[in-house]
Amino acid sequence: MNSPDLDVLKRANDWLNAGYKAYLFTVIKTWGSAPRGPGSILVVRDDGHYIGSVSGGCIEDDLAEKAKSMTLPNSPEVLRYGITADEAQQFGLPCGGELAIFCEPLTVRSELTQIIDGIESQQLLCRSVHMKTGELLIEDALPGSEPKVDGDWFHSYFGPKMRLIIIGANQLGSVLANIASTLDYEVIVCDPRDDVAKEWHVQGSQLLQMMPDDAIVKLKPDSNTAIVAVTHDPKLDDMALLEALTSNALYVGALGSKKNQAKRRERMRMFDLSESEISRLKGPVGISIGSRTPAEIAVSILAEIIQTRSKQRELANTPMNLSYAEVNRYNLA
Q1: Neighbours of 25 (CB within 10 A)
Q2: CATH of segment(s) 162-314
Q3: From start to end of the chain, where are the E strands?
Q4: Could you tell me the residue ranges of all domains in the chain?
Q5: What is the phi/psi pair of residue 203, to 5°?
Q6: Backbone conformation region of residue 82, classed left if phi is above 0, alpha if psi is from -120 to 50, else beta
Q7: In this structure, what DSSP letter does residue 146 have?
Q8: Side-by-side strand order, sheet with 98-106
């Protein structure tokens, strides 16, 4: 399954090649409540057709009308929505939500093909646009990056924002990998078993046919990595978990009932793991939603990973990457 960004950019590229004029909009920053987060993209064609989303509806309609009336800017600019109470009500932004959106007129020289190829090959790329000259740079990027204005440059990021390491190339692992790919995760699957690995055919994922503990050491999990063990074989799952729980991974989970998880934690205590490290283990894995099928279990697991990442962001209390002063500097809407 394709990531949403990939579908949007492919359609935009088709429009440009067909001779249409189009605009790329990227959410830079939100204040208060806002339906879409930083990095969300929208492409609007000059006749009002659009694909993607920056707000959930009302702002898209406004931008489409501006495209049809040819009132959108002819050079890169930052647009603001929802600054006043009247605007928030007009555009359907909840509770005074505000958006800063980067508006970029697209051309056949916008290098969308390079970004599309990068996404399809699981690269994380930074696409930088000079706001005065339109100069374009595309470079490799690091996970965890979010769009920002830096001086006269606007930086946006495309490709896997998170890495998911799945221990087990079984049916659940397959469904989990497919859904994670739509969330822009880099998916790596580890399973040393020949018969199982030969049946792995999930497009866009990487298969490592090696012992799970060696794979975790090799991959060096960081705060943008989630690890889930789903083989149901303690010899494989536990080996991965012993390394995962002492790593910098954001999330470590394992499939199994409460009874089996209690036994697993007892086994963990036989090794050189502290109680705080063992307590990091999410098990039974996933949010409790009564899931039974592999697809339902996969949804519950990814929901818990998303929840964990959201809590991490709240605790980090990351400063805004675009201040009101910066927004006002570029407020040409």
Answers
A1: 25
A2: 3.40.50.720
A3: 22-31, 41-45, 50-52, 77-81, 98-106, 125-130, 136-140, 148-150, 153-158, 162-167, 185-190, 205-208, 225-229, 251-254, 281-282
A4: 4-159, 162-314
A5: -65, 140
A6: left
A7: -
A8: 50-52, 41-45, 22-31, 98-106, 77-81
Cis peptide before 284 (omega within 30 of 0): yes
Q: Sheet with 125-130: list strands edge to edge.
A: 136-140, 125-130, 153-158, 148-150
pTM higher than 0.85: no
Give the per-residue pLDDT at 49. 94
pLDDT, position 320: 42
Give the H or E element holding residue 183: none
- Burial (Cβ within 10 Å: 0-12, 13-18, ≥19) of residue 143: middle
Q: Looking at residue 218, what is its pLDDT?
A: 95
Overall average pLDDT of the 82-91 stretch? 62
Q: How confident is the model at residue 4 (pLDDT cuts 50, 70, 90)?
A: confident
List the structure tokens of 173.
């692992």
